[in-house]
Amino acid sequence: MKALAHVLVALLLAAAQAALLAWLGGGAFSLSLLASVVVYLGLHENNVDGSVAAAGAGYVLDVVTGAPKGLHTFLCVLLFVLAGAVGAAVDVRGRAPF
User: Fold this and answer.
1) Does the pLDDT at position 79 exceed 80?
2) For the residues 57-76, what does the mean pLDDT come to?
3) 24 vs 17, 28, 31, 37, CA distance in Å?
4) How far is C-alpha 25 from the chain's CA centre?
5) How far is CA 64 from the centre of its chain?
6) Could you give the 3-state DSSP secondary structure of residue 8?
């Protein structure tokens, strides 16, 4: 249920991203609002719920942008894994040293 809520937020952000790109233009670097959702998932969710939500967010981005199916899905899950790994590596709340 929580993953579905994250996917719905991703859908809203993808719609906002599409509307903003009409005015701001793509240029060399384009706006990616869904990256913030995926990084949040990597830092705050567990592996199963976060990876399902990240895959859903990537699929939403695949559908909205017209990219080949699975391209953004793979990249969002990869970003989820990397954000989780970096978050675990620099977490100073635990007892494990660097």
Assistant:
1) yes
2) 92
3) 10, 12, 9, 21
4) 21
5) 14
6) helix
| Residue-level length of the chain | 98
Arithmetic mean of pLDDT over the chain: 87
Q: Exposed, middle or buried: residue 22 (CB in 10 Å: 0-12, 13-18, 19+)?
A: exposed
For residue range 32-64, list pLDDT tens digits in order.
888 999 999 999 999 999 999 999 999 999 998
pTM greater than 0.85 (yes/no): no
Tell me the one-letter amino acid at 60.
Answer: V
Tokens encoding 73: 């899905």
**Amino acid (1-letter code) at residue 52:** V
Q: Which amino acid, 31?
A: L
